[in-house]
Design a protein that fits this description.
alpha/beta, Rossmann fold, 2 domains, six-stranded mixed β-sheet, four-stranded antiparallel β-sheet, about 35% helix
């Protein structure tokens, strides 16, 4: 579902991403970790077509994001760490707008909006202008927007940023349930406990290179161990 082939990104003489290769399969919940400045967001921006790799390729659902950008982008949802909403629209109008961009059937969009409105407990604010939203409200609407066209792949950067504990629990539960139904999730986060709880596999990057890989669901007693590993190898 996701494949990175020897991806490199340079800004002048600075190498932000240095020869990263990954394969992530259907229904896998994948954690992408690293300290600040490790190259995580740059990698995600190449995967989503916002940056062009200096070399290498990002393949999403069989489509090279640079060679077939429209086909690739139709097949994934994306939630950045600072989601942008249109302040003059209500949350519901924004979700309808996104569904229309993806040319999803209108009846399906209506049903999915109602589903995620209930699931993420957005009834109290979805019909208000998004300029009034808190960070947590914006995050919930952005996640619903990424899922409204029912994509097979979801790429998310710090999905729990700004969420209160109950909202964070709802998002975690929803994402895990969706991977059980076949959704592939690529998640970048600093919340190591969340990675331990949710992810099937993870990598840690530093200075643009992968320095650690683990199949997390193969480790039945891993609570807290990831933090020790992360601090040790990234210091």
């Amino acid at each position: 579902m996701i494949e990175l082939r020897n991806v490199v990104k340079k800004f002048g003489s600075f190498v932000a991403v240095d020869d990263i290769s990954l394969k992530i399969g259907k229904g896998e919940f994948f954690g992408f970790l690293g300290p600040n400045g490790a190259g995580k967001t740059t990698t995600i921006k190449m995967m989503t077509g916002l940056f062009r790799p200096t070399s290498g390729a990002c393949i999403i659902n069989g489509f090279d994001i640079q060679e077939h950008p429209v086909e690739a982008k139709r097949s994934f949802g994306y939630v950045p760490d600072q989601p942008h909403l249109y302040d003059r629209l209500t949350g519901r109008e924004f979700l309808y707008f996104i569904g229309g961009l993806y040319k999803a059937p209108a009846a399906d969009v209506v049903a999915r909006i109602e589903h995620y409105c209930t699931l993420f407990e957005m009834e109290g604010f979805l019909d208000r202008s998004t300029e009034e939203y808190s960070q947590g409200m914006r995050q919930r609407v952005a996640l619903a927007a990424a899922l409204v066209h029912d994509p097979p792949v979801l790429i998310i950067d710090e999905p729990l940023l700004g969420l209160d504990p109950r909202s964070a629990m709802l998002v975690r539960r929803t994402l895990k349930d969706l991977t059980r139904q076949g959704l592939t999730v690529f998640m970048s986060t600093h919340l190591l406990r969340v990675v331990e709880e949710l992810c099937d596999r993870l990598v840690i990057v530093k200075n643009g290179r992968i320095i650690y890989q683990e199949v997390t669901n193969a480790s039945p007693d891993r609570s807290g161990r990831l933090e020790e590993i992360f601090l040790e190898i990234t210091r």
